[in-house]
Amino acid sequence: MSRPRLLGGDSGERQMQQRLSSSMQHAHKYASPGLLAKARAVIPVDALYTSALEKKQLEAGQDAMPTRVDVFRALLAWYKRDFFRWVNAPPCDGCGATGRLRHRAELSVPSAAERAFGASRTEVYECGQCNTITRFARYNDPAKLLEERRGRCGEWANCFTALCWALGFEARYVLDWTDHVWTEVYFTHAELGQVDKPGGRFVHTDCCEARFDTPLMYEVGWKKALSYVIAFSPFECTDVTARYVRKNAEVWGRRTQCSEPRLALHTVKLCLAAAGWMRGSEGAAALRNLRRAAADSFPRVTLPADAVATSAQFVWERRMCESAAWLQLPPSATAASPAAAGEAVPSAEELQGRESGSLAWRLSRGETRREPARSGGGVPGPPACGVFCASDADVQAGSMVVRYSCARNLWQSAPAPGGVGATDGQGLEALCRSLNFSDVQGGGAFRSHAMARKEELDWNMCYLAREEGSAGAAAAAVGTLMWAFDCSTNTGTVFQSVEVLAGDAVFEDGIVEWRLAAGRTAAEVLASLSGPQLGANVQNLVAAGGGKEASVKRPVCLPEGSRHFAVLAVVRARFWQHAQLFRQPLDDQQRWPFVVRATLVRRH
């Protein structure tokens, strides 16, 4: 398809029109038979159908069959989990090291080979370990991205949109002028559960976050000040900003690059050019290929007659209906609530902050979750933490070692010299078993609060952190975990000293405090840690804060005759990502980021 002739106007408008035109040209790649065949070859179609079928039958019974929406959501999950990989800085091409590469901005010019696959820029890094130069080309060719399978949001959405077309999902590549990219996919209202409503709509999909139909997540959850959001496909160019905002008046005030009538004129001209292309042989073939892919990819899934575009007239009429649906009176400034004012009310999922990319990068962009302060009553009561009891082998060796791997989500009683290790249980299930000291009535008197294990799949990291949505009224919401240790079942045995090794990662206002208390009875220990004031036998091990990583590594001599001790972690952060315990790579099978070593002695 040829580009429409550029019109006059100021430099801002000309830049706008050039960007619209080049993005439309790019969208035409999704109709390329060669690209679609290449994309189709990498998709595990049967596995996606099986996954969708199993999930559907689990939710709706053994006779239920998946819809196209179910299969699409299986595609979305597979793409994020198994196919594409997020890259902030690439690993070294020489030694494979990560985190030690220095950005060489002066070398960031794409080579001829990189430009051939649409790379307008290339990031160049030098390894601080082996001095190897590593190039990270920002490719814009979806065929090349099917091979590379890595990048940031632009590469993610570009490649995902191509996979959608390969399976017969009519998709649009959505460009946000405030630096993000995602996909929209067309479904009929019946497929979306509104069986009595004719027609359909384009549904927001963010493959970086594995989100489906959460259009307000950028404005509400990420706190983005959106201005222009434009969707592109081989069939159309549409301004879809209204779908992603609640307060139109504020957004229109930020749209200053081009007048609204001129923007509408430019998008209509691109749509007219696309309609002419669809009426030709190449465009007609693209329409046939799209429907054939939709019918052949999942033959056991019902395909509604109007699930994909059938003609230029169909696309044009659908676009007019889409635009008309956004025409409404401005919200009332005096309304008592967003709903009363005509504003869309965000869902809980839309309130969440960004997950893709490293935490430091998200914080620098201001796209982490902003949790509202909540007032309320008492502390909620999750299960209490587990108790680790010294074994006969521990007593004989004179040492008790308990350790935790966040990557494997595994607690283990580590072997002391000459001893035998024993697995105490799995992860948070073991961590949150009830306290069952014999001399404490009713089980655990102190309970864990508002903590959970998190995984960052994009960055291959995991850690323990405060639960999302658990912010309190105070500026820094608090989460706590306690681990208890007991040698009272071994007559004449006491704890002499303890060494705690624990790695924390904190950002901005995050703080992690470690405390240790010991005593002759469990009640004495618990009273020291859970009372209104900390007992005299409580020791503060370390406090980490100020955006630094810290490790606890300090041997502590315990009070004489101690048969019980407990280690308490207190996590303080306004936003849950800012304070993390035991952060480590998901594929780290060797390291134990939390280790407690206790020396045991016999009293005669």
Walk me through what this model shows.
- By secondary structure, the protein is an alpha+beta fold.
- Helix content is 28%, strand content 27%.
- It contains 15 helices and 25 strands.
- The strands form five sheets. Strands 13, 14, 15, 16, 17, 19, 22, 24 and 25 form a nine-stranded antiparallel sheet that branches.
- Strand 16 and strand 17 form a beta hairpin.
- Helix 2 (33-42) packs across helix 7 and helix 3 packs across helix 4.
- The protein is elongated.
- The model is unreliable at 3-8, 329-341, 370-385, 416-446, 531-535 and 544-550 (pLDDT under 50).
Distance between the termini: 92 Å
Please compute the radius of gyration using only Cα atoms: 29 Å
Percentage of β-strand residues: 25-35%
Low-confidence stretches: 3-8, 329-341, 370-385, 416-446, 531-535, 544-550
The helicity comes to: 25-40%
- Secondary structure tally, helices: 15
**Overall residue-averaged pLDDT value:** 80
Shape: elongated
Characterize the main sheet.
Answer: 9 strands, antiparallel
The tally of strands reads 25
What oligomeric state do these chains adopt?
A: single chain
- Structural class category: alpha+beta
